Amino acid sequence: AGMKFFLQYLGCFFAFFSAGFLIISTWTDCWMVNADDSLEVSTKCRGLWWECVTNVFDGIQTCDEYDSIYAQHSVKLVLTRAMMITADILSGFGFLVLVLGLDCVKFLPDEPLIKLRICLVSGVMLLLAGLPGITGSMWYAVDVYMERSSLLLHNVFLGIQYKFGWSCWLGMAGSLGCFLSGSLLTCCMYLFRETSSGRLHSAYSLRKGYSPAVAVVTNAHLPSSQTATSKMYAVDTRV
């Protein structure tokens, strides 16, 4: 029991922070940041929804939102948005479902198997959330890296060169956390399902074995005429 609680709470811990990391990553503005340059007087960050410029000396930040979501954007931007929003929804619901499956929460306290199944559903949702999250963040990061490497390879130093920023790193961390928490929860389900099933089966067998014994003892005290009459009455009732 102690190990089951530990796995549940550890999975809940990772699920909470992973969902938070994914949501923060999706709605922050530093997926791309300009590469270090001693001549730069400002830091330029690009996110999935807007671009911000921060002055190095006074810290003043100005942000420009992108055009409408229906406007023409790059495939990288559109697909990353879709995958990160999907990861946010799945991880958020996965965490909320997990809360209901915790043993410390008074929800279906007499149904341990159902609570373990809830943990399994939560684990599957978190595993599914990690897939679009890691795909979107890794693809975005690799695309930025390849673009910068291509410019450096061809000795193109004009304009601003970007590298992936902390929002992208946060998306990767949240996705890996979803994989970890989902794995813990699914293992928790399969490790302790047989134990809980065995306990319920034993309890049911005891109740089932006890009932005939009571019937036999009860019938032993009844006269044979009453027993025969009862059987005839039962047959007539079924007919």
UniProtKB/TrEMBL annotation:
**InterPro entries in the record, alphabetically?**
Claudin, Claudin16, Claudin_CS, PMP22/EMP/MP20/Claudin
Q: Does the keyword Lipid biosynthesis apply?
A: no
Q: Where in the cell is it found?
A: Cell junction, Tight junction; Cell membrane
The record lists the membrane-crossing segments as 7-27, 120-142, 169-192
> What reaction does this catalyse?
Cs(+)(in) = Cs(+)(out); Na(+)(in) = Na(+)(out); Ca(2+)(in) = Ca(2+)(out); K(+)(in) = K(+)(out)
An example GO BP is: paracellular transport
Query: Membrane topology per the record?
Result: Multi-pass membrane protein
Keyword Transmembrane attributed: yes
Swiss-Prot/TrEMBL keywords: Cell junction, Cell membrane, Ion transport, Magnesium, Membrane, Tight junction, Transmembrane, Transmembrane helix, Transport
Cellular component (GO) terms are: bicellular tight junction; plasma membrane
Q: Cite the GO molecular-function annotations of the record.
A: structural molecule activity
Q: Which PROSITE patterns does the record associate with it? A: CLAUDIN
Give the family this protein belongs to, as stated in its UniProt record.
Answer: Belongs to the claudin family.
Question: What role does it play?
Answer: Claudins function as major constituents of the tight junction complexes that regulate the permeability of epithelia. Forms paracellular channels: coassembles with CLDN19 into tight junction strands with cation-selective channels through the strands, conveying epithelial permeability in a process known as paracellular tight junction permeability. Involved in the maintenance of ion gradients along the nephron. In the thick ascending limb (TAL) of Henle's loop, facilitates sodium paracellular permeability from the interstitial compartment to the lumen, contributing to the lumen-positive transepithelial potential that drives paracellular magnesium and calcium reabsorption.
User: What is the name of this protein?
Assistant: Claudin
Its source organism is Sitta europaea (Eurasian nuthatch)
